[in-house]
Amino acid sequence: MEHKLCHISELEERKPIAFDLEGLEVGIIFSKGQVYAYENNCPHFGGPVCLGDVFSQIKLELNDQQMVVDEYTDENELRLVCPWHGFEYELKTGKCTIEPNLSLRKFHAYLKENYVYLQSEQNE
Ligand code: FES
To answer: Ligand 1 centre and the CA of 75: distance in Å?
Structure first.
């Protein structure tokens, strides 16, 4: 089932917004022309994960002695952070970076004629 959610002008880069789809709360995150959609329900303890912040992954460069010689952010690897306990999820996949067994429930979201659409699983 296709849901028309909002006009693209309502989205801000890396600023999640939540929509209620008949009782199912879904967060939309816009980044670099892509839209991502996840259920606003953190699998850790049910927190409103899509109300959290989105940030670039921080990477460390180590020398041969495993000492940090550089620290930088990777703009291609974004993380969504749950505001309750700080679990981080890969924006592209919804996989938890702290607890590999946890993943956000992902939906197919896309842009069409400057509107954001979401495909729910209810096709019958
Ligand atoms: S409920 Fe999201 S990190 Fe705990």
So the answer is: 24
Question: What would the two tokens of residue 26 be?
Answer: 């879904």
pLDDT for 25 equals: 96
**Model confidence pLDDT, tens digit, residues 7-59:** 999 999 999 999 999 899 999 999 999 999 999 999 999 999 999 999 998 88
CB 42 near ligand 1, within 6 Å? yes
CATH class of 2-115: mainly beta
Atom of ligand 1 minimally distant from the CA of 46: 1
Q: How many angstroms separate the alpha carbon of residue 45 from the centre of ligand 1?
A: 5
Residue 105's nearest CA partner among 114, 113, 116, 96 is 96
Q: Two tokens at 61?
A: 């460069």
pLDDT value, residue 124: 39
| DSSP conformational letter for 120 | -
Report the atom number in ligand 1 closest to the C-alpha of 42: 2
